[in-house]
Amino acid sequence: MSRREVLISVLVLFLLAVLALPALAQQEKVDIYENQKLVKSVVFVVGTREYFVNGQTPGVKMDVAPFVEAGRTFVPVRYLSNALGVEDKNIGWNEKARLVTLKQPGYPVVELVVGSRQLKSNGQVTNMDVSPLVRSGRTFLPARWVAEALGYQVEWDASLGLVVCWPRGEEKPDVGVVKEYLEKTSGEQGSWVEINGYRVPDGDLLREKDGDIWNTKAGLRIFIGQGDAEMGLYIYPLNAEAFEQAREVLASKWGDALADQIINYAMQKKTRNTPLPDKSFFTSNDQEITVGGDGTDGVDITVWLPEYSAKPPR
């Protein structure tokens, strides 16, 4: 090859390298897809069995609602992963190690272990302030930590209990349509307000309100911040709607699993004359919740303040 041909070859390679630089720069920004559609926003709602992608309403139905524990919102692993663009085939579960692996092509490989506060993203370890949980046989992941590991920005909107996620580097999306939908459907199903960390029924669902006592049409009586109790519930008449309302109030602060245990026990009192011995349950921070109905027409559920709670058995 002549000297001239060598110089021409070097020049061509240099030009090709320069032209490739913009393409390489673009690859640093990873687009996020869900069902082959570019994801611009994902919204989860505490206490709502529905999530929203790209502001589309109605949303995608779930069989369990996100809940808040230790100040973080937890979402079932499959729903959280799917919403953020990870397909079922790329969600791994190792039962022995209790390890969740999210391995979607084009994404960081994310690994979390139930009970551990360490999150691995492409092998790099991040220490979280909470750990994945198992409730009623289901694995729940902390939404913010997982979303950020997969390339999202995350913001908490306290007005309706929203976790808003959008691709990092993009402008924050307008989720006004989702808010309007939630406000509308909430009004149809009975609205709720948050008191001391509990969602309690308000609006059309109320029969009456007396100070810090709420009475629902179904027969649930709710006491907030009275005496030695943080919160109390009294269910009478004994009907499915009142039990479900009580479950939702408890789940809004303590999660579905504990709420299900409490209400399943409470529902053993089927008539006014059926005795229900007192039984204690304990929250994740060792607050005692007693359930009983022996000698009463209905069922009493009391969440005791920490200083008045008995220590759980170890």
Structure description:
The chain has 314 residues and is an alpha+beta fold. The protein has 6 helices and 25 strands. The strands form 6 sheets. The chain has a 7-stranded antiparallel β-sheet with strand order 19-20-21-22-25-24-23. Strands 5-4-3-16-15 form a 5-stranded antiparallel β-sheet, with helices on one face. A 5-stranded antiparallel β-sheet has the order 8-9-10-11-12, covered by helices on one side. A hairpin with a 4-residue loop joins strand 15 and strand 16 (162-167). Helix 5 runs antiparallel to helix 6. The chain is globular. It starts with a helix and ends in a 10-residue tail after the last strand. Mean pLDDT is 81; it is low at 6-37.
Give the strand tally. Answer: 25
Largest sheet: 7 strands, antiparallel
**Category by helix and strand content:** alpha+beta
Gap between N and C termini: 83 Å
Give the overall pLDDT as a whole number: 81
User: Which band does the percent of strand residues land in?
Assistant: 35-45%
* Global Rg: 25 Å
- As residue ranges, the low-confidence spans are 6-37
Total of helices: 6
Note the overall shape.
globular
Enumerate the strands of the largest sheet in spatial order, edge to edge or round the barrel: 19-20-21-22-25-24-23
What share of the residues lie within helices?
A: 25-40%
Draw up the topology in text.
Elements: H1 3-27, E1 33-34, E2 37-38, E3 42-45, E4 50-53, E5 60-61, E6 67-69, E7 72-76, H2 77-83, E8 91-94, E9 99-102, E10 110-113, E11 118-121, E12 124-127, E13 133-135, E14 138-142, H3 143-149, E15 152-157, E16 162-167, H4 176-189, E17 191-195, E18 198-202, E19 206-210, E20 213-216, E21 220-226, E22 229-235, H5 240-254, H6 256-266, E23 279-282, E24 288-292, E25 299-304
Antiparallel strand pairs: 1-2, 3-4, 3-16, 4-5, 6-7, 7-14, 8-9, 9-10, 10-11, 11-12, 13-14, 15-16, 17-18, 19-20, 20-21, 21-22, 22-25, 23-24, 24-25
Helix pairs in contact: 5-6
